[in-house]
């Protein structure tokens, strides 16, 4: 699925996709761990091969899988950021806890995760779910 840059961003920021996560998907550096997490959620919500590449590129090499296949039957509906810990523009580590609402062939659900991020070489990377 390709999003119109004028559509609301899937990450729930309230901005348009063009003013929000699209810029990270196109190569801009996310300034915070939360911004990276939101852009990764938007990549899952958008899907497609280019988004799989983005997800792998923003995954820390120590925990990155060799391949990633997104489930086309999962439709991501809403993201709620529960809390953040550090992860700011001058931090090297960050935690983001979130709830991602989805629907699939079995109904609706919520995926809850507390994610750990590190900043290396000026770029935030997803490390793992805690």
Automatic annotation (TrEMBL):
It comes from the Bacteria. It holds the Pfam family YchJ_M-like. Residues 32-128 form the YchJ-like middle NTF2-like domain. InterPro entries: NTF2-like_dom_sf (IPR032710), SEC_C_motif (IPR004027), YchJ-like (IPR023006), YchJ-like_M (IPR048469). Belongs to the UPF0225 family. This is UPF0225 protein L0M17_18495. It comes from Sinomonas terrae.
């Amino acid at each position: 699925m390709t999003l119109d840059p004028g559509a609301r961003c899937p990450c729930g920021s309230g901005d348009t996709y063009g003013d929000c996560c699209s810029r990270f998907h196109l190569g801009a550096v996310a300034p915070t761990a939360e911004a990276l997490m939101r852009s990764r959620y938007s990549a899952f919500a958008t899907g497609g091969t280019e988004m799989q590449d983005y997800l792998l590129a923003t995954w820390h090499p120590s925990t990155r899988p060799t391949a990633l296949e997104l489930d086309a039957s999962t439709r991501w509906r809403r993201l709620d950021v529960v809390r953040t810990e550090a992860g700011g523009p001058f931090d090297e580590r960050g935690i983001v806890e979130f709830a991602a609402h989805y629907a699939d062939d079995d109904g609706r659900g919520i995926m809850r995760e507390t994610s750990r991020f590190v900043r290396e070489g000026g770029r935030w990377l997803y490390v793992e779910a805690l």
